[in-house]
Specification:
alpha/beta, Rossmann fold, single chain, 23% strand, 244 residues, 8-stranded mixed sheet
Length: 244
């Protein structure tokens, strides 16, 4: 899952989840060679469901939309970023209500959208969509699915017990000095699963523990920055292959 080409495709799908016009969403999905299935959307949570064939099996990918600021700003999503009330899942740990509750409420609809016979689901998303992708694994695992999660610039969304009980951590991609993985700030209840898949300032992917950088950067948070850096890596891979 740390292959730059795989990460790039999922980053572009995460970007597609931000699109508003249905035809634009479908065009972006088709360009990535996924099969469009459904878009589950309301004022609180947006999820894009697609499928692909992997080794003769149909697998699903669910991309959650991040917070919309610049276009079609949604106050409810902004409130979800701020609503850090703890939801107690018992022995499965505690989660950030604003991040988790809207996904849990819509999980039955998402599950119905998954193709019959599909047993494997990969969750992805950027920012708010990224933390929801990470947390959604709990819901899917409880329903018997094999899961993976690849998030981009995801905030903290659960306590240490949650990640220990889940048993497998997401691929948590962070671009340079992106501030969002530190959110919520100065709150010891929530932790990030480790390690972090770090896109370093010199354009390399490294597996590290803990946040990297001196000053958090808002500019490094844009999904477009993630895509540009990953495109540079894949271009270098293509060049290296061509010279062999």
């Amino acid at each position: 899952m740390n292959n730059p080409q795989v990460l790039l495709r999922l980053a572009k799908l995460s970007a597609a989840a931000y699109r508003i016009v249905e035809d634009d969403v479908r065009s972006a999905v088709n360009a990535l060679d996924y099969t469009y299935v459904a878009r589950i959307a309301d004022e609180d949570c947006v999820a894009l469901v697609v499928t692909e064939e992997v080794d003769g099996k149909r697998e699903a990918v669910v991309a959650f939309q991040g917070t919309r600021f610049y276009q079609n700003t949604d106050p409810q999503e902004i409130w979800d970023d701020l609503d850090d009330t703890a939801l107690d899942l018992g022995p499965k740990g505690r989660v950030h209500r604003g991040f988790y509750a809207p996904v849990a409420e819509r999980w039955p609809l998402l599950r119905m959208a998954l193709p019959l016979g599909c047993t494997t689901v990969t969750f992805t998303g950027h920012s708010l969509g990224g933390v929801r992708a990470n947390l959604a694994q709990r819901l899917a695992v409880d329903d018997g699915y094999e899961t993976a999660a690849v998030s981009f610039g995801a905030p903290k969304g659960a306590d240490r017990q949650f990640w220990m009980a889940l048993g497998h951590d997401p691929v948590r991609v962070v671009h340079k000095h992106d501030f969002a993985p530190l959110w919520p700030l100065v709150d010891a209840r929530w932790v990030q699963p480790e390690p972090m898949t770090w896109i370093s300032p010199i354009g390399r992917i490294e597996q590290v523990v803990g946040w990297r950088g001196l000053l958090p950067s808002v500019g490094d948070h844009s999904i477009d920055k993630y895509i540009t850096s990953l495109e540079g890596m894949t271009a270098n891979l293509d060049t290296a292959s061509a010279t062999v």
